[in-house]
Give the backbone structure.
Amino acid sequence: MTKPRTDSGPRDVLELGPTLCVGKLRGASQARTAPGPKVGAALSRVDPRRWTGAAAERRHRLEPLGSPRHAPITGAKTNPRKLRSQRRRSRYGCWNHLIVAPLWVAYDANLGTLLRTCDAVGACLAVPRTEHYRKALTLGDTLRGRRPCIHWVAPTKQEWLAEQRAAGRRLLAVELADATPLPRLGPAREPTVLLLGHEHHGIPDQVLAGVDGCVESPMVGWGASLNVAVAGSLVLYRLAGLS
């Protein structure tokens, strides 16, 4: 039988018919062997916490489905490099299907958070072309030049909203009103604009009168409402079909 290498630490050798699998063990003092038909028994005698790296993945593949040890090993952080390789390498174009419009949001931090949420769910961000919003997006842009599509609201908010209605888009507002509870909100099947209001005053009454519906997040605590960026992010994930 092939002898395990000894120059890089002790290893465990498992013979699977014509295949020879080698995996590192932490604290192992000698090589162990097991005949092919008893692979499951041989693996069950090895503490799974001592398997690391490729050896842990190999052991996971060798276990039959339904085995109590078949569950993935938990407690380890995701490798950032591997995670980035599975994500989009460049920013996506304008899908023009889901647009979040924080037209009355005042705080810079909330706009930065919404920018990240739009990137995560594939939505566009619509904001007025003013110095306040330009500065807020510059400060909150942590995507290194890959921020999502931004629609500049002009010439006025009311005229822009009228254009969205004329284009056939559904207007939804995140507001404490006669609203649909968030758990009952389904994915957006048609182009949708999500309106977010001021942190203290909400969405103006004259705008609420013309929307197609409102959404609210159920709450059991003392707070009257959620942070506008948190509430908007929760609704965006529901509309995108990701939660």
About this structure: Strands lie at 11-16, 19-24, 98-101, 124-128, 150-153, 170-174, 180-181, 192-195, 213-216. The radius of gyration is 27 Å. The CA atoms of residues 115 and 125 lie 7 Å apart. Helices lie at 39-44, 53-62, 80-86, 108-121, 131-140, 157-166, 205-208, 228-239.
